[in-house]
Amino acid sequence: MAIVTMFLVGFLSLVSSAHCQGWINAQATFYGGGDASGTMGGACGYGNLYSQGYGTNTAALSTALFNSGLSCGSCYEIRCAKDPKWCLPGSIVVTATNFCPPNNALPNNAGGWCNPPLQHFDLSQPVFQRIAQYRAGIVPVSYRRVPCRRSGGIRFTINGHSYFNLVLITNVGGAGDVHAVAIKGSRTGWQSMSRNWGQNWQSNTYLNGQSLSFKVTTSDGRSVVSNNCVHAGWSFGQTFTGAQFH
């Protein structure tokens, strides 16, 4: 019986350890005001975070996490940790929508919160206040990457002009962070797009008057193809919905 008991204790310890794997220590602050209006726009190019479906569950990432913009769209579960004076119970899930720039004029432990190599989340104020008290200002947190859960399909907003198609890609499920995009017109083959900035992807091919298909690949190597999701009569400034990661 003692052997069985020891086995069960060991097994439960392994299960508990596996469940906690992936949590990483970091810090969090907040910005953007109580209505999060100051978080709109940002280095990922998403513009109005309300209309794009991200709302106030958003974060600006430090250099160590931002990956020069390739982390845009990724999702993180965050909980306040090891500070009973300021922490609140529970966790939040946020989407990376902005960049928290370094401040090299200040030391890492006194204002230079987003300086390399620190892993730091500058959260919208409303979502920060779900895990910590406002007066805290900055709190230790633990975080882990989680799948992004989105409603509806991936959205493609076509900006630019002829021979310069700049496509903003939003509402991406799964890993969330787009690392490669290909485009195909009804009169062309598949062509790789280059990332211009944030999650704006560029093609210099003349595609006017053609229906368009997209292949989106995220950081985990998974891809989804949206065949002919843009009709041939499209015009610049329009947004179209394609397939989604499941």
Q: How would you describe the overall organization of this protein?
A:
The chain is 11% helix and 37% strand. The protein is built from 3 helices and 15 strands. The protein has helices at 2-20, 63-66, 125-128; strands at residues 24-31, 58-61, 75-80, 92-99, 120-124, 139-146, 155-161, 164-170, 178-185, 190-192, 194-197, 200-203, 212-218, 223-230, 239-241. The strands form 3 sheets. A 6-stranded mixed beta barrel has the order 1-5-2-4-3-6. The chain starts with a helix and ends in a 5-residue tail after the last strand.
List the helices and strands and how they pair.
Elements: H1 2-20, E1 24-31, E2 58-61, H2 63-66, E3 75-80, E4 92-99, E5 120-124, H3 125-128, E6 139-146, E7 155-161, E8 164-170, E9 178-185, E10 190-192, E11 194-197, E12 200-203, E13 212-218, E14 223-230, E15 239-241
Parallel strand pairs: 1-5, 2-4
Antiparallel strand pairs: 1-6, 2-5, 3-4, 3-6, 7-8, 7-15, 8-12, 9-10, 9-13, 11-12, 13-14
For the record, give the distance between the C-alpha atoms at the N and C termini, rounded to a whole number: 45 Å
Share of helical residues:
10-25%
How many DSSP E strands?
Answer: 15
The gross shape turns out to be elongated
Order of helical and strand elements: HEEHEEEHEEEEEEEEEE
Helical element count? 3
Which residues sit in consecutive blocks of at least 5 with pLDDT less than 50?
1-21
